[in-house]
Amino acid sequence: MSFFKKLKEKFNLKEEDEQKEEQASSEKSTGEEAADEEVADDQVQDDAAPVDPLADATAESQDDQEAHEEIERAEEAEQDEEVSIAAKFKQGLKKTRDSFSGKLNDLVARYRTVDEDFFEDLEEVLISADVGVTTVMDMIDELKMEVKRRNIKDTREVKEVISEKLVDIYYGDDDEGEVEGLNINHDGLSVVLFVGVNGVGKTTTIGKLAHKLKSEGKNVMLAAGDTFRAGAIEQLEVWGDRVGVNVVKHSAGADPAAVIFDAISAAKSRDADVLLCDTAGRLQNKVNLMNELSKVKRVIEREIPGAPHEVLLVLDATTGQNAMSQAKTFSEATDVSGIVLSKLDGTAKGGIVLAIRNELEIPVKLVGLGEKITDLQEFDAHAFVYGLFADTIDEYEDEEIVD
Ligand SMILES: Nc1nc2c(ncn2[C@@H]2O[C@H](COP(=O)(O)OP(=O)(O)OP(=O)(O)O)[C@@H](O)[C@H]2O)c(=O)[nH]1
Ligand SMILES: [Mg+2]
Fold first, then answer.
1. Residue 126 CB: number of other CB atoms within 10 A?
2. Nearest-CA neighbor of 159 among 111, 117, 92?
3. Residue 342 alpha carbon, nearest atom of ligand 1
4. What residue ranges line ligand 1, CB within 6 angstroms?
5. Which long-range contacts (CB under 8 A, 24 or more apart) does 29-38 make?
6. Residue 202 annotated as binding site
7. Cys staple from 358: which of 135, 151, 341, 398, with CB 3.0 to 4.6 Å?
């Protein structure tokens, strides 16, 4: 089966007409539900009105409101899940797609046959998307072999082979090709430590992940381990309030290791499932700050055998190849178990994902595809490639019929 067709089937992508129809009918029913809800709300208020003004009733209506908010949150999460993973990647990778596909289409139009010059120009296109020189070289070698093997002459056909090879390159020898989710312990507390340089998106990712895990039914707590930057504790508290999870904090300037120690005790005593630990942004070349991270990690290791379950290095996709040097230094100081690549939506050079995985051999576990609370996804190489080639793939079936 063709790779594009495989992707279409994997993500259950329907023809546009069908999708529009479905969307229209779901909008209609959501509208109806909303109207029903309004009626229900009125009834609740009417019912509540005469009972008042006792304190008990106030508490009850507060409970009602909280429950209502809870339902609203759940509904929001549910609706969001309906926007498929593929659609999320398509939306988040728009900048990269516009640039990468544009260049690729130009290339295909300029060359009729797949020859040495074509590959040279393709090399440039891939490097300009931040795929990374070593990865590009590997990729071009593999592409040449595949093109020969399949006896592909026409440049139009080569797009599909490129997309397939991008997925292969990502997974490398690990030919399972499965999404590498977070290593979350299913019975007992899991601790996830977030590290990275300033402003890459650590705290925002914690907020988004807390929301995601909570909507999956997990009891989540946050640890305000950034005691250094002014306003950092408050920023995490805002996320805690927004998501509806507890934040363990000390005052500004406190020892981060002590905050994490207390947060672990609190998480244990409250039977939390996951503790997400924020840390201050630090430049990878500041030795004392890197040592401080090691200390935090030692505290976690001592308190819970097998923890931290993940040390996630957050990298800002918009910083390009500099992210690679950050990844190298951080993984020397703490054993980084996975990468969060934030702000993929903000760059036209999303190819950095492949470079990180291929050259550093650290899996990209999560990607930030926007600033909204729901814009965090587990990294899925197939969805990523769909995001890059969405325009071509969406049109694919039509072409096949014409043929
Ligand atoms: N567009 C976009 N913006 C993001 C994403 N993730 C984070 N941001 C933005 O990046 C900025 C920095 O995010 P923070 O979470 O404060 O970064 P941090 O690493 O905690 O920063 P420090 O605590 O100062 O080290 C904020 O304005 C976020 O909204 C993303 O996936 N997409
Ligand atoms: Mg922060």
1. 25
2. 111
3. 31
4. 196, 198-204, 226, 229, 232, 281, 314, 342-343, 345-346, 368, 370-371, 375
5. 30/79
6. yes
7. 135
> Kind and range of the H or E element at 247?
strand 246-248
* Distance, CA of 63 to CA of 201 (rounded, Å): 34
CA 161/CA 370 separation, integer angstroms = 29
Question: 246 with 276: CB under 8 angstroms?
Answer: no
Beta bridge partners of 376: 368
Neighbouring C-alpha atoms within 13 Å toward the C-beta of 292: 24
Residue 346, burial from CB neighbour count under 10 angstroms (0-12, 13-18, 19+) = middle
Distance of CA 151 from the midpoint of ligand 2 (Å): 52
Q: How far apart are the first and last CA of the chain?
A: 16
Q: Give the integer Cα–Cα distance in Å for 135 and 359.
A: 7
pLDDT in tens, 77-97: 544 554 488 899 999 999 999
- pLDDT single digits (tens) 273-317: 999 999 999 886 777 888 899 999 999 999 999 999 999 999 999
Q: Which of 205, 236, 371, 372 to mutate to test the pocket of ligand 1 (most atoms within 8 A of CB)?
A: 371
Please write the tens of the pLDDT for every residue from 180-204: 889 988 889 999 999 999 999 999 9
Q: DSSP state, 315? A: E
pTM over 0.90, yes/no: no
Q: Do β-strands 376-378 and 364-368 pair in parallel, antiparallel, or remain unpaired?
A: antiparallel
The dihedrals phi and psi of 372, each to the nearest 5 degrees, come to: -70, 160
Give the separation between CA 127 and CA 125, rounded to whole angstroms.
6
